[in-house]
Amino acid sequence: MLAEKQKGALRLTAVDRTAEREGLGAGMTLADARARTPGLRMVEADPAADLALLERLAEACRRYTPALALHAPDGIDLNLTGCADLFGGEAALLAEIAARFAFNLRLAVADTPGLAYATARFGRGGVVPIGVRAEALADLPIAALRIEADSVEVLRHLGLKRIGQIQDIPRAALGRRLGEAALHRLDEAMGLRAGPLDLKLEAPRFMAQRRMFEPIADETQVLQVTADLAADLVTALDTRGMGGRRFRLDLFRVDGAVKRLGVATGAPLRDARRIAALFVERLAGLNEGLEADFGFDQLRLTAEVADALRPEAADLLDVGDLAGGTEALADLADRLAARTGARIVRLAPGDAHRPERACKAVALGAPVDWSAEAPARFESAPLRPLRLFTPPQRIDVPMAEAPEGPPRRFTWRRVVRTVVRAEGPERIEPEWALDDADASVRDYYRLEDETGRRYWVFRQHRYDASPAARPGKPPLDKDAPPEPPPTPTWRLHGLFG
Amino acid sequence: MFQPPNLIDLRGRIAAIERNTPKGGRRARGGLRAEDIGAAGLKRALSFGPEAVDTRFGLGGLAFGAHQAAAGPGDRTAVAVFAVLLLARLFKAWPDRSALLVQEAETLQEDGALYGPGLHALGLDPGRLALVSARDGAEALRIVDEATRSGAVCAVVGDLRGGARKLDLALTQRLNVHAQQTSTLTLLLTPDLDGTSAAMSRWRVATAPSRAPRRYLGGPTLDLELVRNRLGRPGRWTLEWSSEDEAFRLATPLRPPVVLTPVHRSDAPFVAFPGDRAPGAGGEAEGRVAAHGGR
Prior knowledge:
The complex is a heterodimer.
Chain A: E1 2-6, E2 9-14, H1 17-22, H2 30-36, E3 43-44, H3 47-61, E4 68-71, E5 75-78, H4 90-100, E6 108-109, H5 113-122, E7 126-127, H6 133-138, H7 149-157, H8 163-167, H9 171-178, H10 180-190, H11 196-200, E8 207-216, H12 219-240, E9 242-253, E10 258-269, H13 272-284, E11 296-308, H14 311-317, H15 325-340, E12 344-349, E13 359-363, E14 377-378, E15 381-382, E16 387-394, E17 409-412, E18 415-428, E19 441-449, E20 454-461, E21 489-495
Parallel strand pairs in A: 1-3, 6-7
Antiparallel strand pairs in A: 1-2, 4-5, 8-11, 9-10, 9-11, 12-13, 14-15, 16-21, 17-18, 18-19, 19-20, 20-21
Chain B: H1 7-20, H2 34-40, E1 44-46, H3 51-54, E2 62-63, E3 65-70, H4 76-93, E4 99-104, H5 105-111, E5 113-114, H6 116-121, E6 129-134, H7 137-150, E7 155-159, H8 169-182, E8 185-190, E9 201-207, E10 221-229, E11 235-242, E12 247-250, H9 284-292
Parallel strand pairs in B: 3-8, 3-9, 4-6, 4-7, 7-8
Antiparallel strand pairs in B: 1-2, 9-10, 10-11, 11-12
Helix pairs in contact in B: 7-8
């Protein structure tokens, strides 16, 4: 017997058959139970562990269908649409589930979740034939509808104990007595309305799965089956004119564990060969291998995200060899992402003149157009560096060397560099919309040192560096000389090579 | 369309060359003969511009295959400039193709990231350059290998640091063969030229002082040393890049100007160091100092 503290006293939450025969039931306090039957064995209830067990059970049930939901504390709802055939029919599926798990299970298959719930818990279980909802519901007690306990009490007082008795009552009267919720429940069970649980149980549209006669553990065999699944999936995608953007391969082990592998593509894909190739890369990139142990007996390939695929793009995908061009590069990008997770990017012009914002990295598929920008050079000399440091690096410029113009000498990374040539200044001001109020004005210089290396260096100062602009601090002594303007700081922003 | 080489024919040619070379296996002077090059199925990827450079290669320029360029610690941006300018030449010769550049993640911190406007200023369309960042050197090499084998791009540039230590004869030979088969120019940028390599050409790159008049910077100027060349003899040149030709030019040697002519560049920003005198007013000595770079 399990006991738990409820409503201020230790109450029983579950009893076994012997205790049930003694007359004990859930909800009874432990003291009463002990009084009735002295020789009790009590175990503390652990709802967290129960939930964990339920979740593990649900994981193991994913092999039957991906669309399932927990019905805490002790139930699982599975949407078997289209899945029963793989297991030889609904009755065979129920038999297999009963055989697989060593629990005392009450199973039922019906048209609607509400009816299945009612049949499993309050009825005989088994497979309810299609379309006989009203008759199947008629014999079940009203509590099977999952309506409020007080409503059930109200109906019991009225002498209504079975669902069949309330099916004929006009709905307006029922609604007045029991409330809208009860009416909803009845409609759900009858299949006249979709309950909130139904939405969670929606099965994915594009799915292909296979059961193995004998479990497979070898990587090549797994890839072979994946290729077959991809071919099946592609036919389903084809009929809808869609391509998959994200695919997931579920490998179900004989002992119930599930291995999940996902790949994503830049553009919608409907080519079975390329999908299979992506999974080849994905498997190759696994650090720990497949962990097949005794083998997998079921594989399922799902297209989790699918987009419309334009016909002309599809024609190009059907070409035998992808020789050059953007398709081949996109394929390479997908394969590299599947194997290593590395993303291929391109540089696009940013919409700002501040140098660190003038360039941004975008995904491979995004459009990049530099033709609108004029190349920043004067004759053959580039005005922008090849490499940019973020953030700009500090350099030391001795005060005496740079009164107004570019520095004649500076120290960067502990090497003193003597400037031989200089061009500039190029003033870049902060952008009022994007920078905050105390961002600085920069005067950029292009410098070359004696070895020929070129640097992009700026002097940074504020708009108005005079003492009068500094807020708050009145001068300590009126006769003191005015403070000198703050020394500007120099930074290295990039290298030209 | 590019035809893959006939392997049996190629093996026969190689056997003939090996029989004909003197003892010790040294290659005959001048490298491969023209007919050997043709039979080997090598194809020219790009030309440099100046004839003095292009005639060093039997094909008139760099061939599709694996090449290696090395620069010391201070010149890493210079070798990147070299790679970018080669890509610019390549894009000019082969429109509608793209290139892939592979970087190691830790070099971004030390060297800085590639800057789009800078690429654009050097004459390269950044839209045709794809970038990928690898976790470490081994992964960078794997990506370079994968990209070369796929033939999806016409050039693969690998900016290697730790990965350079893993380059050996077998790996570079494999890259070479794949690159020739898929018409890809695979350029490996390494910190040094240690280790054996089967690359078609090996370069040492350094910056060179600018040759522009007065104190202007001018176009990029590089000191290139062709250390090994499988299609010809080695050499050494100082090249500068010209944007209007979109090609390299042999840099004029540093020499004082005979007559100092004033340069009118009214729209270019110009700065004069304090103490400089106006042009023409005793400026010859100043001009000479400027041309020598202050040395």
